[in-house]
Amino acid sequence: MIPLGFYLGLAALLFSIGLYGVMTHKNGIRMIMCIELMLNSANLNLVAFSSYTNTLDGQVFAMFSIALAAAEAAVGFAIFMAIYRMHDNINLDELNILRW
Amino acid sequence: MPIEIPEFILPLLPWIRGTVGLSLVGFIFIAAMGAVWLERKLSADIQSRMGPCRVGKYGLLQLVADAIKLFTKEDLRPLNADSLLFNNANIFMISSVFLMLVAIPVGAVFINGVEYPLAVTQMDISVLYIEAMSAISIFGIFMVAYGSNNKYSLLGAFRNFARMVGYEVPLGLSVVSIAIMTGSLSIVEISRSQGLLWNIFLQPIGFFVFFVSLMADMGRLPFDQNESEEELVAGWITEYCGMRFGLGFFAEYIHMILGSFLVALLFLGGWNVPSFVANNPVLGLIAPTGFLLVKTVFVLMVIIGLRWAIPRFRIDQVVDLSWKKLLPLALLNLVWAVVLGLYLGA
Amino acid sequence: MLPVASLLILVPLIFAAVTFFTKTKKQAAGLGFLGSIATLGLTLYAYLNFDSSTATIQFFESIEWIPSLGVNYSVGIDGISMPLILLNSIVIPFLILYSWKEDREAPNRFYGLILTMQAAVIGVFVALDFLVFYIFWELTLIPLFFMVNIWGGEKRVHASYKFFIYTHVASLIMLLGIFGLFYASWQQTGAPSFDIRELVAQFKFFESSLLRDAIFLSIIFGFLAKLPVFPFHSWLPDAYTEAPTAGSVLFILLKIGGYGLFRISLPMLPNTGSPELIINMLGLLGTFSIVYGALVALRQKDLKRMIAYSSLSHMGFVVLGSAGFIALSVSGAMFQQFSHGLIMSILFMSAGAIQTTTGTRIINNLGGLAKRMPKLTVLMMVGFMASLGLPGLSGFIAEFLVFTFSYVNLPGFVLFALLAIVITAGYHLWAMQRAMFGVYNAKLGDISDINSLQVFSMGVIALLVIYFGWNPNPVLNMMITNSEAIVSLGAALGV
Amino acid sequence: MSGIIDSYIPVAIFLFVALVMPPMTMFMVKHLSPRSKAAGKYTTYESGSVPTGTARIQFNVEYYLYAIAFVIFDVEVLFLYPWATVYKGHGITSIAVAEMFLFVFVLLFGYIYLWKKGALTWVK
Amino acid sequence: MVNFMLLAPEIAVAATSLIILLIGVFMSPRTKNVLGYLATLGVLAALVLTVQSLGTEAVIFYDTVSIDALSQFFKLVFLAVALIVSVASIKYNENSDHTEEFYCLVLFATFGMMGVASANDLILLFCAFELASLATFALAGFEKQNARSLEGAMKYFVIGAISSALMLFGISFVYGATGTTRIPAIAENAAFLAQNPIGLVAIVLLIAGFGFKMALVPFHMWAPDAYQGSPSVVSSLLAAGSKKMGFVAAFRVFILALPALQVDWQLAFTILAVVTMTFGNVVAVSQTSVKRMLAYSSLAQAGYIAMAFVVMTPMALTGGIFYTLAHAFMKGGAFIAAAAVVWMVTSQKTGDLITPDHLDNFRGLGKTMPLAALSMTVFVFALAGIPPTAGFMAKLLLFSSTIEAGMAWLAVIAVLNSALSLFYYARLVRYMYFLPPDGKKIGMPFQYAAALLIAVAGVLVMGIWSEPFLQWAMDAAQVLA
Known about the structure:
The complex is a heteropentamer. Chain B is an all-alpha fold. Chain B has one domain. Chain B has helices at residues 13-46, 62-71, 83-103, 126-148, 151-182, 187-192, 199-202, 204-218, 229-232, 242-266, 275-279, 283-309, 315-345, and strands at residues 108-111, 114-117. Chain D has 2 domains: 2-35; 61-117. Chain D contains 3 helices and no strands. Chain D is 63% helix and 0% strand. By secondary structure, chain E is an all-alpha fold. Chain E has one domain (4-479). Chain E contains 20 helices and 2 strands. The relative contact order of chain E is 0.10. The interface between B and D is large, with 83 and 71 residues. Chain B: It is an enzyme of class 1 (oxidoreductase).
């Protein structure tokens, strides 16, 4: 059996990488990728906990969250695509009509 | 005579099975070479040509000659290619077929009436696993196409992508329909459950959907839009030459063989033989596997034959076929399976 | 019996709503006048049926509103509110008559707002439930804000915001005090109630004197800022000055701060942690307002601003009288509210008339108006004399009562405040002399006297000022009855 | 639990072999094959003419729509798998069947929507 | 057998949205107006069903759905918002080719919010939360040709997605430490979570996750942009509906599931509430775009509501819950009024077309669109807490309960903030009534008028005849106590 801590550590690492990426990257696609990373680290947590607490809820949860992550990415890409058509790039930095 | 296995070996058993199972790779390699030969010969027959006949009897050694040629060809890489993607793409293609191979039983032996499937490993979700592993190959294809920085390659890869995406769904749905009937996602279970009636008879629509989707998944004609030599030179593989090309080519043929196995296992009754045959100590060792292999070869020949029966579809036709025809059919089949399951279960 | 208390709110409110939808100025003014006359009729009906020998609530009505919070719609009239309702109902018809001939944009809103204001102010006076009280209290803000903001002078935006935010903050702090009172009493009795009388009665049972002080101070802060008195007055000069004449008069009629003082704060005062200190503080604030208001008024060049400061000075009497805390000084303070409303109405109307005819309010630019505007001069004289406390006019009664009877408890403050009488007389007479008498300032051109409607409306009010100067009893009686009731609470505690 | 892990040990072995095999093959090729340098050999093939521009160009947006449709329906299948395996022999209640039909039915609305909006047509 | 009638409101909403989607694709743009009425009917039906079912209590679907006073109250909130939005959107979507998508998304969002309201399980809570979020992401960027809409949508999406990841990560820890996702069971097994630092991590992550939706400072960055950029009807949905979803989720998760960690989250909410209300009001003062101003005011309001988490007495919870309904009417209506102005500006081509909701475009609205101006006045006065409106009653309950709990300092801060807010609300009123208009009087589309009247009625009825609403809110608070 692999100790639970390993899973949690990995998940935390992935989550941190994702969070770091979201905060530093300005490109929309990269941000979505980083967010997916964060979501998946949570899934990893859920599945690990599920196996260690001998309950199924976590796995079910992970499945739902995968589905939701897919839908989220779909919506996100749709928005980015519309932005790309208008601005020819998806740099969040360069979108600044709305401020203060 | 039950075989006694010493206690200390038990934990090592999976390792041993895996290592021994590697011999399957050899078998499949040879089978793939055979398939290439078969395709050439068959095509030639269909078109009233000779086919390979110089090297060896009936040109049987043609493939060996080809292999030697490939090994001694210079490995070229365009200067503006992305070397990381370009060099490592093969790994994905090879991994895809190898990993598929792990879960596919190539037959079964009956010892004292007890069934031992000839699979490297048995998982309870093997169908799902195989589907997943089969999809990995698209990474390889895309890496090649994007890495080689060639317009034909990229076009081919994009078509490949559109096609794969379209056919995964009907494929998955038809597998679900079978899982409903069997109550399991294990390929061994599914094969076993067809003792009385093959799935092809229970779910003819499902079979049709599965077969077509599988063809498309494997990129066999009439679904080889990713290569389409006449318009895209060689599609995604344009810049691959020598052994690199050889590996990709090989992976495709292995994929085809494994696909044929899948059809035989999932729909054509697998290795099921009448129980008197299975209980026969000698026939029990040979007949089931042989029966499966015969069916597989038959499927293989059908697949090859279809290449010359139907011209290549246009990409829009391909996409239409998957989304607008196969998908509703697959859903229809799902409903049919549920109804059937209710009826059979009651 | 008619449900007079509710009708007094409803009638002006309904007339206001209808007035908002009128098209022409004539309709608007006519409807407004009709509404105010109807209200006056109701008020007179209430007054005639009023028993001034008792301090209990009359015309009481109560309907359950939000039972889970103990909120009831309960209204009623007693001797504290009756004179103030009377004041409002009397002045507003004449105010409408006064401004009958003025031309302004959106007359429908103008007259509608006047009536809304009347309804809101009367609502505050008749409310016996804290929530109802607070709702009308806040409602008074809106018409006044618009009044200043739409029809005000040059700096109207600034003035309206200043007034609005300032008094709103004060009322919110008062609201917090009310909440504290509400919850403390809820804990005390176990049943929620917003009833003013009950909460005020419960006040003395709260254990923590800190809590009592906090509640008392935050509530009285709201009243003092609305009144206003000295340190909280800074919205007053701007708002009074920038408002149109009718707005200024409405401000004058906004007697809710003083009313709250009598209705809520004074009965609570003896039960606070340190009543002595609070009384002294109030006395100090009152005295300061009197003297400060008078001194600043002396320096003003703007006639209207001078009147505004004199109003501040008068309000000081209200606080000083309340702080005196014996029946007659408190009723003096109440009477001051009443008479101040009448007097200041005349003064602001005069100032308004001067501005519309001459185009300026700067005292130095006027001069000799008596020659061209004799009627105005007479009426204004009455106002000024009443304002400076000339015996025989209503102002005198109020100031006399306050000074005489506050002296019992607060001799030092009264002596100090007496100084202001001199100053008050000084600036009034000086302003009169410069503006109305002497050589006519030719720069003002050819001007004519005020119109007959204005004469009539101001004249009636002036007559009332004189009448109450000779015979204050019609209102003073009920004031004294109630003051005694208030003060007797404190007497029991030996204050 | 350990049974599941056991069944994946062969997978690991195969994966290792699959990872090693292509580089090894290419290593062999490198040593077996002849080498000769010429400038033309290292350009990409563009029907014989000199290649122009980069191949990394924008592609048709339709691919995106297909990807989204794929994701949606693939996820649908994802939910069907566990349900399918317990369908038979687990005393599954009719309500579960009804629920799954509802699920597919709801997705069908999406499918019809996609179809009518032309998202499934290659050339619009 | 599950009693499906318990879910009748949800089913009505979902079925309506699917039907709209289906028949919408077969209709020509000219006839698509019908869809708006259909959506309105569906929402009305759901509203009636919810009101009818008031008082029922049940836990169904293997303890995942809890029908109780709290969920029903919030369902009312969401359905009320949906009603206002769908009525107003009939005009917004006139002659649009995407009507069915719009309504489908609005109803899906409502459905998701209703799901959150009745979630008794973190899985359902998360799924419903995401359903509502995704639908609103798409709605925020509904005007594909409008750079502002897209920018707002993108910011909303990015931050919303991050927040859902944070929330999921937090939930995973809660699940890991308690071994269950059922809310009552979590409360029972929370002992380990309370002792372990993991509990703190989970709380931080969850607060961040919900805080984004509630738009509490410092998780508010998206809100002003999204509210300003989105089509006004959508802003209405976002501010009035989606924000409340964050609150009901937080009510469920923090108060019902994690009472063991009350000390931790209470402290966090104290800081967040104070900072949020102050920041929102201070920044709102300097805004020139009305929608942006409303957005910042919405932040401030969220700060007030968050006080319920700080005070935590039954009265405060009642106040917070009451406030959500009041705020739904006030803010929802205010954005609809802004929508009417945007419609006026774009259809008349007068004024500042680039920012159609600029304050200057509200000049003389009292003359050009008297109804819009009047109702806007009612809304902003209600937001400022001036009686006799719903906003006043809500503030009365909330602030007074704060005093009751002995947190006079918090009440003072809140009251001062609310006084400050008057400043920018009054400015808006001044523009509408006291500045000369640009154009002539315009006939108000009756759909906007109807939506505004519903909202005005809500605001006034809740203010004047508060008793039934108060009772509902008390019942709902009872669930949390």
